[in-house]
Amino acid sequence: KQEVTQIPAALSVPEGENLVLNCSFTDSAIYNLQWFRQDPGKGLTSLLLIQSSQREQTSGRLNASLDKSSGRSTLYIAASQPGDSATYLCAVRVRAGTASKLTFGTGTRLQVTL
Amino acid sequence: ETGVTQSPTHLIKTRGQQVTLRCSSQSGHNTVSWYQQALGQGPQFIFQYYREEENGRGNFPPRFSGLQFPNYSSELNVNALELDDSALYLCASSGWREGPDTQYFGPGTRLTVL
């Protein structure tokens, strides 16, 4: 059974700092890995998607890496801003019957202070 | 914001009642997935519908059921509500053009069971 773990559970940093969020998964049989952002009480916004054959993806101040063999991914956020405050969720896409599904971690709650 | 809408936004029910949640997919999307997100947890896959048929299901009991209509809108029905059913229910749609990796999540329905 696929399990996804995210460390740390919560993080508070001052504005301008670079930070790293960690994600690990137990089964390497994944199609891809995604990082999402969730604001309180809201839906999910996809930030980055890394296919299983890729090593990293970048979008603006965000960079995500994937090491499928070791079951690890990191999300690097450069020059953090207060607007980055949210919960960040890591999810792997795996087979589900004839379909596929996302298996999520429990998230890292990030607070960027002024 | 995505083109996926959900109704109602919030809902309060009592134990034993039945509830229907609705999702309107992004235009052109023929696949919808439903997820349950308990407080402080990551979303968990309930099931997926493709062209009006269920083609994938997570570890949820049969009292969780769904429908997808010819216009690709969708319903999630939960019978015999239990206190643990209190959660944010998210739907996500995807289409053949963009593939299953590009899922758009709705804002969710917050269900409280008393």
General description of the model:
- The complex is a heterodimer of chains A (114) and B (114).
- Chain A has no helices and 11 strands.
- With 114 residues, chain A is mostly beta strands.
- The N and C termini of chain A lie far apart (41 Å).
- Chain B has 114 residues and is mostly beta strands.
- Chain B has strands at residues 5-7, 10-13, 19-24, 31-37, 44-50, 53-57, 64-68, 74-78, 87-94, 104-105, 109-113.
- In chain B, the strands form 2 sheets. In chain B, strands 2, 4, 5, 6, 9, 10 and 11 form a 7-stranded mixed sheet that branches.
- The model of chain B has no long low-confidence stretch (mean pLDDT 92).
- The A-B interface holds A 4, 31-32, 34, 41-46, 49, 51, 89, 91, 93, 96-107 and B 2, 4, 31, 33, 35, 40-45, 48, 50, 55-58, 88, 90, 92, 100-103, 105-108, 110.
> Major sheet of chain A, described briefly?
6 strands, mixed
**How many angstroms separate the termini of chain A?**
41 Å
Largest β sheet strand count, sense and barrel closure of chain B: 7 strands, mixed
Helices and strands of chain B, in order, run as: EEEEEEEEEEE
**Largest interface pair:** A-B, 27 and 29 residues
What ranges of chain B have pLDDT less than 50 throughout 5 or more consecutive residues? none
Total DSSP helices of chain A: 0
Oligomer: heterodimer
* Percent of residues in β-strands of chain A: over 45%
Structural class of chain B: mainly beta
Unreliable residue stretches of chain A: none
Radius of gyration from the alpha-carbon trace of chain B, in angstroms: 13 Å
Strand content of chain B: over 45%
Q: What string, H for helix and E for strand, traces the elements of chain A in order?
A: EEEEEEEEEEE
Percent range for helical residues of chain B?
A: under 10%
Number of helices of chain B: 0
| Form type of chain B | globular
In round numbers, the mean pLDDT of chain A is 95
